[in-house]
Amino acid sequence: MTVGISNRPLASRAVFATVAAAVFMSNLDLFIVNAALPAIGRSFGGSGLGSLSWVLNGYAIVFAALLVVAGRVADRSGHKRVFLTGLAVFTLASVGCALAPNVGTLVAARLVQAVGAALLMPTSLALLLDTTAPEKRAGAVRAWASIGGIAAGLGPVAGGLLVEAGWHWVFIVNVPVGVAAFVLGVRVLPSPGRAGTEKSPLPDLFGAALLTGSIAMLALGLIKAPDWGWVSARTLGGLAAAVLLGVWFVLRSARHPVPIVELPLLRVPAFASAAAALTLFTIAFAGMLLGAVLWCQGVWGYSALRTGFAIAPGPLLVPPVALRIGPAVARFGAGRVALAGSVVFAAGILWWAATLDTGSAYAASLLPGMMLTGLGVGMTLPVLTGVSAAALPPARFATGSAITSMGRQIGAVLGVAILVGVLGTAEGAGHTVAAFRHGWYAVAAAALLAACATLPLFRKPRPAASEPTAVAEDVESARAGAA
Q: Over the stretch 344-375, which tens digit does the pLDDT of each residue have?
């Protein structure tokens, strides 16, 4: 399909519909799988939380490691081709998830699902911008970014409804959406688009493997520590392996001509601070979301549907707050707004720590905390995402976006792993409540650390022309030296 001047608006709407369906499906998957986790455990003979956590963490680890690789593959092979491949892989893997006979098979299918998501996510925005007039691209980016917020608002209730029919439906629902988006995409997506003409080298695949191994070993050590013992040889060995692989990854990235993470980008203070704060805040967010689901279903005995309705007020608050936060950012600055959002989020979690009990009332305990966390997310995530993007030169926007997205996925892995590790194997109502309280303290601590990471954003940025040029020169110098 050739996109000309006369049919550009129609083409842009069709492309947006295709991209939105795929992005919505992959974002919704996070929230509905969280809601289904207890039901999956019961279906597979009461599988432990440590094993079940890999349904979430396996997906996030692979997704994080492949984001940059997938973006470079798209530059070489074409955005349309890679997007449709990712969509097909994600849809077929969803069928595999639904048919999984045990936890191990389900985790394996989720890893394949993550490969598909990593292929379609970096290409979705590029395809949208290919068919959007320059003066309308800012609005298109905001609309694309809002899809995640909509999925967050609908996810808990949708997950509860689907789990009522059987946990398999949280994966089956992806199939008709994926097929429809694929058929439409074949017809309307621009080909070859801006990509496909640039034969850039592939990024460091071995570096991606090192990053994957480091995150996986760290998650394994944290999750299994209650069973193995926090000072056992296996736990300490796993954590040491995570550190060694992480250091190897950093050293390799410093020398490789096309690293997974371009380290000179981290010399931009605003970008480094925003990326660090995003990662820390996502640790808190992931722990909060899983903890709320486990509390409602495991402690209060809520059904999956009732849990969805109980959690929904927080996520539903995120889109309207995010859309109206602009004036506050203009008046007080992005750093102060993000710090306030992180503190508000932590206050919601600490409210849970102070009020949640086996006999506490939903309206007086869980609901106020959920509203505060929703407000905090709306104040923090879009602001930090905007800061990280604005801090980089245009030539590094895609790479920077991939790095921050990778950081958020790593944060999600750590949030789940930390919460599972803190909850441990508590038995009995009193021990369970105490374990959750310790988990809430850990989640709140991550949010407060995110607040601390925003402090460098209070400084006035350097002149716009100097910093991007220096970053670009640093990157090119690093590549030349490595070559």
A: 999 999 999 999 999 899 999 999 999 999 99
Which 3 state secondary structure label does DSSP give 331?
A: helix
Burial class (CB in 10 A: 0-12, 13-18, 19+), 5: exposed
Q: How far is CA 391 from CA 50, 325, 365, in A?
A: 39, 19, 40
- Ranked by mean pLDDT, the top range of 127-136, 444-453, 468-477 is 444-453
What's the mean per-residue pLDDT of the chain?
A: 83
Q: Token pair of 64, please?
A: 């994080």
Would you say 141 and 20 are in contact if contact means Cβ atoms under 8 Å apart? Answer: no
Q: CA angle, corner 46, sides to 41 and 50, nearest 5?
A: 65
Orientation of helix 103-130 relative to helix 49-77, angle to 10°: 30
8 Å CB contact between 88 and 182: yes
| Number of other residues whose CB lies within 10 A of the CB of residue 66 | 27
The one-letter amino acid at 101: P
Q: Give dist(CA 398, CA 123) in Å, integer.
A: 10
Contact yes or no for 110/58 (Cβ under 8 A): yes
Residue 465 in this model has a pLDDT that exceeds 50:
no
To the nearest 10°, the Cα dihedral for 164, 146, 288, 314? Answer: -70
Say what the pLDDT of residue 128 is.
76
The residue-averaged pLDDT of 54-83 equals 83
Q: How far is CA 396 from the centre of its chain?
A: 20
Rounded Cα distance between 434 and 432, Å, is 5
Q: Which residues contact 10 (CB under 8 A, 6 or more apart)?
A: none
Task: Using pLDDT thresholds of 50, 70 and 90, give the confidence band for residue 98.
Answer: very high
